[in-house]
Amino acid sequence: MSLRTTPSVDYVEDVSPGSGVLPPRAWYASSDARSLSLNGRWRFRLSATAGAEDDSFAEEGHDAGTWAEVTVPGHWVLQGDGAFGSPIYTSHLYPFPVDPPYVPTENPTGDHLRVFDLPSDWPSDGGAVLRFDGVESCARVWLNGTELGEFKGSRLAHEFAVGELLKPGRNVLAVRVHQWSAGSYLEDQDQWWLPGIFRDVTLLHRPAGGVGDFFVHASYDHTTGEGTLRVDSDVAGRVTVPALDIDVATGEPVTVAVEPWTAETPRLYDGVLATDGERVPLRIGFRTVALEDGLIKVNGKAILFRGVNRHEWHPEKGRALDLETMREDVLLMKRHNLNAVRTSHYPPHPAFLDLCDEYGLWVIDECDLETHGFTEQDWRDNPVDDDRWTPALLDRAARMVERDKNHPSIVFWSLGNEAGTGRGLTAMAEWIHGRDPERLVHYEGDWNCRDTDVYSRMYAFHDEVEKIGRQLDGGTRKRRELPFIQCEYAHAMGNGPGGLADYQELFETYDRLQGGFVWEWIDHGVRHAELGYAYGGDFGEELHDGNFVCDGLVFPDRTPSPGLIEYKKVIEPVRIEGDGADGTVHVTNKQDFADLSALAFEWSCQVDGETVESGSLAVPALAPGESAEVKLPEPPADGRGGERQWTVRALLADDTSWAAKGHVVAWGQFAVGARPLPSFPATDRPVPEGNRITLGPARFDARTGALLSIGGVEVGATPRLDVWRATTDNDDGAEWQTDTRFGVLWRTLGLHRMRHRLVSVEAGDDALTVHTRVAPAAREAGLDTVYRWTSDGERLRLRVSVTPEGDWTVPLPRLGVRFGLPQADVVEWFGGGPGEAYPDTATASMVGRWRSTVDGLQTPYVRPQENGARADVRWVELGGLRVEGEPEFWFTARRWTTEQLDAARHRTDLTAGDTVWVNLDHGLHGIGSQSCGPGPLPQYFLKAEPAEFSFVFSTTR
Ligand code: IPT
Questions:
Q1: Is residue 427 a contact partner of residue 50, using CB atoms and an 8 Å limit?
Q2: Is 10-206 a domain of CATH 1.10.260.40?
Q3: Phi, psi at residue 821, to the nearest 5°?
Q4: Cβ(519) – ligand 1 distance below 6 Å
Q5: Which of 13, 418, 466, 643 is an active site residue?
Q6: How much of the chain, in percent, has pLDDT values that exceed 70?
Q7: 3-state secondary structure of 782
Q8: Which of 38-54 are b and which e, b meaning 16 or more Cβ less than 10 Å from the residue's Cβ?
Q9: Angle at the Cα of 945 from the Cα atoms of 940 and 946, rounded to 5 degrees
Q10: Is the C-beta atom of 91 inside 6 A of ligand 1?
Q11: C-alpha distances in angstroms, 598 versus 450, 659, 843?
Q12: What's the pLDDT score for residue 404?
C-alpha cells in the first residue's frame, strides 16, 4: 500500500462537509450487537500547520514510541500542562482573519494514534462502523493505513464503514485533527475554541440483518387518551412494548390507551425494535407537539418554558463531559424547578438527551451553526447566504435531526444561533419541516419568522416583551400569529441576573408569551493553578472577551449561584401566597400537566425568625391552573411582643428520580403583623474628656467624632457614609449597550473615590452630632451627611441623615455606612437569607434566623465584584456587636475592602486583611442584566434623595 508523502490539505478549507462518511442515522445503543469503546489514552503529536507532517503516521507499523499521549475524549489544549497550546476565548469575533473559507497557515494539528486489539470473540459476520461523536473542527481518518475520509461538524456524529478493514488482533486507528477548517466559520459560538476528539470514539459491530436507521413516531391524542406508535425502520422488523401489549411490524401504526409523556410527567415505555439480526431498546414517550391557536401546545395544552441555555462545560475537561456530569446538570435543573433546556448552540452529547427524556425536560435541540463574526462586516459573505455552503448546512441539519429524532423531550429543532439570515437557513428549515413535521422549528435570527414556527428573541427588555404579549408589536402577519419565547434572556454574568421575577410575571400574564431560557447554565471557567478559574485573556490570547464566558447560573464547579436560587423561586410550579393577618393561604398550581398530588404542604410560624410551631397543611390535589384557599391554624400567642410570620412550604411527598422526599419545591411567607421597631430613649449625654468623648458604652475621638469602641469592642474604622460598590458585570454593562451604563457613569463621577470633609463635631445635651460633606474630587455634587449618636446607657444609636446637594443625575450604587471590626468570624442575623439578595434579585430571600461565617457570606463570582448582601435584616450579630436596624437594612461583611474587591480580577487576588469590613445599607441599586440585556427596572433604582436611617449598636459579650 502506498501513502501520499506530500499531504494534501485542501479538504481543510473545502466548504463541503466531508467525504467517505456514512449517511446520518439515529444514535442508539444496541442490546446485542457488540461494540468496543476506543476511548482512553491515545498517542499524540502536535504540529503547527495542517501540512507539516505526511501521512506515514497512519501506516501500520509506524513507530509512535516517542510521541506524547492524550486522553480521548478530550481537548489537547487542556492537556499536557500547556505543552499543547492553550484555549482561546472569543465571544463572537473569529480569532483568525475573516477570509472564508480560508484559515490561518498556523493551524494546530493533532495527529492521534490508537492501536487496539479486536477482541478474539468479535463476530466475523456482518460489518462494522467506526463512530466519532464529536471532533473539533476537522478530522481525517485512517484505519490500518487506509484512508476512510474526512469530516467537519464538530458536535455531530460521523460514522465510517470499516468492516472490510478490520483485522483480527492488532488494528491501528489514525486521526488527524485540525483546529481550524472551513467548518470553523460555521462554529463561531460564544465559547472557548477547543480542538480535539472531545466525544466518544466507538467501534460498532453491524450484524447482518441488523437495525440501520429508524424513526419512532409516538403521538398522543388528548381527546381520547390514546397514543399512536409507528416505528419506521430501514430494515423491517417488529416492535414490541410489553406494558402496552404492543407487538407490530415496523411501519405499522398501532393505537392504544397510554399515559402521555410531558416534562412534568415523563412517562417512558420500554420497547424493543427487533430485526433479524439485532435488538435495539426503545424508550418511547407519547406526546404531540403542535402550533395551535397561535400557541405551542403539547398534548393539547399550551406550555410555559422555564428554561435555561446549556453549553457543555467542565472546568477541567472542557466540552468532554462524562455521563455523571450530564446527570448532575439534569438533576440540578430539576431540583431548581427548570423544565426546559436549549442546547446552545449545538446538539449535546446524545446521552444528555436520554436524561432529558428520562427525568423530564423540554428540549430545543440546536444545530451546530453560528456565523456571528460576520456581523462585523454587516453579514457580507455570510455562509448561510451563499449557496456554496448550503450542502454543509443541510448536512449539519440532517446530522442533528437524524441522530436525535427519537427523543420525546425534543419539541423544537433550532437551525442554529446568531447566523444572520439567508437562503441556507431557509433550506435547512424546509428540509427539517419535511423530514419531521411532528416538531416545530426555531431560529432567533429570523425576526420575520419566515422559516420558523415561533417568534423568538433574545434579551428583549421587559417593556417590549409586554408589548409582544399584548400583540402590539406589529411585524409581519405571520409573526403576529405566532407565539413568543425568549430563547435567551436574563444574562447570568456575575452578580445577577436581576429582573427575573418581572419577566416571569409577564410570561404568566400573557398567553402569547411562552416563557424563556435564561442565559446561561454554567460559567465556562477553566481550572487554573494560579488563578483559580481562568477566563478570556488568561492564556495570553491576542483577541478575547474576558469574563463574558463566565455568565452561568452555576459556578464552574456546578455550585448553584444565587442567580439559580432566585430563578428556582421565581419559576416555582406552585404559587403560595397568603394573608398573614387573616391566616389564609392561596395556593395555585402553575404546572401545565401535573396536579399537586406529588406535593405535601407544611406550615410553620416564626416569632422573631424562630419557628415556634409547625404542622402539615391539607391542600387539595389541584389540577393545573387551579387555585384554592386554605386556612392556617390560629397563630401562636404574641407573648414576647415579637414579629410573627407564617412560612408555608411545598415539599416532595415521596422520593422521585431527581430528589428525595422532603425536597422543597416552593414556599411563601406572610407576616402576621408589622415588625415592632426597637424603642430607644436617649437618656445619656455625651461627656467630653480630653481628646475623648464618652457616650453610654461608647468612646469617640473628640476631634474627628470617630467611634472608637462600644463596651469592650474596639471599632477599627468608624461607621461612615459609603456609596460605592465594586461594580458588577451588570453595572458595567456591555460596551455595545446604548442605554446608560451606571457602572461607567459612577466611576466617571468619582463615586469610588469619595472624600469626607468634617464640618463639625458637637457634643450636645442628648447627642453627639458629627456633620460631614461627602463628595468626589472635581464635582460640585455631594452628600451632606449628619451622624447623630445617642445612648440609653447600654446601647448606642446612630441616626444617619443624608441630603444630596448639587446636580445628582445618577442613582447611587449603595447608601449606608461602612465600618471595620478587628475581628469577626461567626455571623448571626434575623432577616433575609440564607443567600445574597439585591433589590431585583430578592425573591428567594427567606426571612428567618441565619448563621454563617464571614467567609461563608462571600459569593465566589469568578471575576470578583459586589456580592454577598443579605436583605431585610432586622438585626445582625458579629464580632461581639449586635446591630439593629430602623428600618431593616442590607448587611454585607468581608475581609477585604470594597476597593480591593473592585481591583481584583480573580478570586485569588483577594487576601484577607486584619479587618472585617461591614456595610449596613439603607439602600442598594438594582442589579439588572445589562451585561447583555436591560439594566435594572426604574423601580429598583437607588435614587439620590434625602434619606434618614438608624442603627442601634450593643455588645453581645
Ligand atoms: C448572545 C449569544 O447568542 C450567546 O451565545 C451569548 O454570546 C450571549 O449573547 C452573551 O453571553 S448574542 C448577544 C450578544 C446579543
A1: no
A2: no
A3: -120, 135
A4: yes
A5: 418
A6: 99
A7: strand
A8: bbeebbbbbeeebbeee
A9: 130
A10: yes
A11: 42, 12, 24
A12: 98
Q: Does the Cβ of 786 fall within 6 Å of ligand 1?
A: no
Closest among 846, 837, 845, 843 to 927, alpha carbons compared: 837
User: Nearest to residue 415, comparing CAs of 371, 461, 471, 352?
Assistant: 371
Q: In ligand 1, which atom is closest to the CA atom of 92?
A: 7
Q: Quick one: which of 228, 269, 227, 274 has its CA closest to 249? A: 274
d(CA 190, ligand 1 centre) in Å: 7
Look up the pTM and report it: 0.97
Is the model's pLDDT at 1 over the cut of 50? no
For residues 316 and 640, the model is more confident at 316
Residue 402 beta carbon below 6 angstroms from any ligand 1 atom: no
Average pLDDT over residues 437-466: 97
Residue identifier of the C-alpha nearest atom 10 of ligand 1: 932
The three-state secondary structure class of 266 is strand
**Residue 530 annotated among the catalytic residues of the structure:** no
Asked whether 444 lines ligand 1 (CB < 6 A), one says no
**Catalytic status, residue 794:** no
* Ligand 1: nearest atom to the Cα of 189: 5
Of 371, 418, 442, 520, the residue with max ligand 1 atoms within 8 A of its CB, to mutate for a pocket test, comes to 418
Is residue 458 in contact with ligand 1, taking CB distance under 6 Å?
yes
pLDDT at 6: 52
Tell me what the mean pLDDT of segment 524-541 comes to: 98
Contact 423, 394 (CB under 8 A): no
The domain 687-955 is placed in CATH, from the list 3.10.450.50, 1.10.150.130, 2.70.98.10, 3.40.50.150, at: 2.70.98.10
Residue 562's nearest CA partner among 827, 337, 942, 861 is 861
Q: For residue 839, how far is the Cα from the chain centroid?
A: 21
CA distance 313 to 535: 13
Residue-wise DSSP of 196-224: EE-S-EEEEEE-TT----EEEEEEEETTT
737 CA to centre of ligand 1 in angstroms: 13
Q: Among the atoms of ligand 1, which is closest to the Cα of residue 493?
A: 11
Catalytic member of 488, 566, 572, 866: 488
Strand, helix or coil at 511? coil
For ligand 1, the distance from its centroid to the CA atom of residue 457, given in whole angstroms, is 11
Q: Which atom of ligand 1 is nearest to the CA of 459?
A: 15
Q: For residues 695-715, give the mean pLDDT.
A: 97
Q: Is the pLDDT of residue 5 over 80?
A: no
For 789, other C-beta atoms within 10 Å of its C-beta total: 24
For 535, what's the count of Cα atoms within 13 Å in the CB-facing half-sphere? 24
Q: What is the CATH class of 572-669?
A: mainly beta
Q: Is 595 helix (H, G, I), strand (E, B) or coil?
A: coil
pLDDT surpassing 70 at residue 207: yes
Q: CA–CA separation, 932 vs 929, rounded Å?
A: 6
Q: How far is the CA of 327 from the centre of ligand 1 (A)?
A: 25
Q: What is the chain's mean pLDDT, rounded?
A: 97
Domain ranges for the chain, please list them. 10-206, 302-461+488-569, 572-669, 687-955
In terms of residues, how long is the chain? 957
Q: Structurally, what CATH architecture does the domain formed by 302-461+488-569 represent?
A: Alpha-Beta Barrel (3.20)
Angle, helices 350-359 vs 390-404, to 10°: value is 40
